[in-house]
Amino acid sequence: MTEIKNLNEFEALLSDHTGLIVIDFYATWCGPCKIMSPIFEKLSQMDELESVKFIKIDRDENLELIDKYSFTIPSIPRFFIIKSNKNGIEIFEDLGGTQSKTSLFEKISKYLDSGSESQKTEISKENQIQTNSKHKPKVAIIGSGPAGLTAALYTSRANLDVTVFSGLQPGGQLTTTTDIENFPGFWDTHNNKGKSGTDLVETIRQQAEHFGAKVEFSEINQIQYHKIDSKNQFVLTDSGKQKHEFEAVIIASGASARYLGIPDESKFIGQGYHSCATCDGSFYKNQIVAIVGGGDSAMEEANFLTNFASKVYLLHRNNTFRASKVMLERVKKNPKIEIIANVAVKDLVGEKTLDHIILENTIDGANLDLEKLKLDEIDQNRYKLKLDGLFVAIGHDPNTKFVGNLLDTDSAGYLIPQSRLPKEERTSKYDSATKIPGLFVAGDVEDQLYRQAITAAAGGCRAAMETEKWLADQE
Ligand code: FAD
Ligand code: NAP
Known about the structure:
The chain is α/β, with parallel strands linked by helices and 475 residues long. The chain is 27% helix and 26% strand. The longest helix has 22 residues.
């Protein structure tokens, strides 16, 4: 793998290399980019992809190159599969966000010149995780956030055969934030400040791998449970339709960012409308942005956005805030942030990218200072606010689609561990167990209340220890 530092180096490569080139556009401040880096490195070392040149390009340092070759990079990381030709380059694939190793491998293989179709299929098959009869994995962990990786650390130290399925966000939600200040023991004692969320999950992953856990960068689409001759069996189907068998499973699939659900929303995603300020904030240097929400995420991200934007509006549908006092105070003290309370975003407007939004009062008589806030009144209740970018930080939905009807959820969609059931309804002595024997849950996917890295990690520990005990009970 090569780091391309400037346009000259890129053009030299284009003239030298006639085969496929895969580019990883990254930025030094981007958490998901750090997570993708080892996956990209592993791909570059695969024998099957020997003829492919893998290059990394720092997006912030190479705007001239990006401009000249018309790469469109609305968010990072971004991967391009290209080939040089006499007119410049031909782009085969343009892939945004974190990718699994298998899916990137498959996409690259599709464009390989050498090898017949059947050979390619063989290669692809080899790279799927196959259930091996000699070495049957015992425990699957779905999710690679603090809950899943802590569960992997504990189960692998307990000498179980552990496979973690990372999902599309390896490392989980912490990779979308900057520094963590409240994970005990994870503190920069020299500078008296927090440390990177990505580094925290990366370290737990390395710890778990050291004790034998295998991390597969793929997503689980379905989970089935069978009882065969009084033995439990779980069959997990991944996004490549491969099936994997396990005796116990820990679901630690966390939660995903929520969007507003307003008209034309999808048209603007990545084009002025974002759910991750840490990932996309730097696109708005000296511009005007807004963030929606009243929780800790909105406060943290509003402050973060002031590193780039000239002005940040914090838009909240209420005038009371879920955010902790300390976080709210930081926002109030930040001279670049303007809070507008009691408003809802009703519409996103623009040609190709966002131009302005329509705000509506959520209470009568909101009495906003239109001049100070630079709001154009449409009528008594609605305003136009000109913006370059809009971010949302309005909470998350638990990732449970792959569970289907196997387990019950509460009214907000969270999975229900035994600990949350009344005594008479419990079917297992283990707190993190579910109604299905051998199926355990941990982290944000079952916890609407605390949703912290430390509670997720603690949940992962509990589920792992209970899984180990439950497996021992079966012997
Ligand atoms: P997640 O971190 O959500 O991880 C879920 C994992 O499951 C991901 O790896 C995902 O890829 C995977 N997955 C999902 N579906 C599938 C599937 N079908 N197949 C396979 N894998 C799947 N907490 C703090 O304590 N301190 C902070 O400073 C802090 N800052 C935060 C900042 C932001 C912007 C956000 C959004 C949250 C923050 N939190 C913080 C909360 C913290 O990140 C979460 O509580 C924690 O990450 C939850 O961990 P988890 O492992 O349960 O789930
Ligand atoms: P949250 O606490 O659930 O807050 C979500 C906010 O979004 C609420 O203010 C809510 O408004 C608003 N909202 C929800 N749906 C909306 C919609 N459709 N339109 C407009 N507004 C909407 O979520 P979070 O801020 O992501 O925090 C999640 C967890 O992570 C919390 O436990 C938090 O403490 C933790 N976290 C911690 C840190 C830290 O400690 N540094 C940083 C970030 C997050 P209402 O209040 O009106 O319902």
